Amino acid sequence: MQSRFEEAVQLAEQAFITELSRLVEHLAERLRGDSDGSPKIFRDSAVTNLTEFFDRFRRLNVRSNQELDELVSEAQQIMRGVNPQNLRDMPSLQRSVAEQMTEVQGRLDTMLIERPRRNILRRGR
Fold first, then answer.
1. Spatial contact of 110 and 29, defined as CB atoms under 8 Å apart
2. d(CA 27, CA 14)
3. Residue 125 DSSP SS3
């Protein structure tokens, strides 16, 4: 029973890491723009989805991975007081948030692992 609980905790942590990584990468990519310098379409949802993640993480987190807790807190601190319109109106804020989120993304990448897949045994026909 204990091993099943530990496996469930690890799967939940990996799900949180994967989701945060996806959200942070998306926001940073939208703020940086294309490699040719042209801006990408930036929607409010890039910020609101991240904010919703922070709320859900705090409600559901089992607090077993200190590094993940710290990264979520760091990303939340970066986004504190930032709203989508500020990011549109202030290029310096855009660059700063993009750079900081890229750093968070790099640290998240080291935490991502291949998730174990369960083998499903099916009876032959």
1. no
2. 20
3. coil
The closest of 69, 65, 70, 76 to 101, measured between CA atoms, is: 76
Sign for the pseudo-dihedral over CA of 61, 66, 72, 76: positive
CA 72 to chain centre: 8
DSSP string, 62-82: ----HHHHHHHHHHHHHHTT-
Q: Where exactly are the structural domains of the chain?
A: 2-111
**Residue-wise pLDDT tens digits, 51-102:** 999 999 998 877 778 999 999 999 999 999 999 999 999 999 999 999 999 9
In sequence order, which residues have a C-beta less than 8 Å from that of residue 13 and are 6 or more positions away?
A: 62, 64, 65, 68
pTM, to two decimals: 0.80
Q: Which of 79, 73, 71 is nearest to 27 (CA)?
A: 79
What is d(CA 100, CA 78) in angstroms, rounded to the nearest whole number?
A: 7
Closest-CA residue to 12 (of 52, 59, 50, 47): 59
**111 in helix, strand or coil?**
helix
Contact 46, 53 (CB under 8 A): no
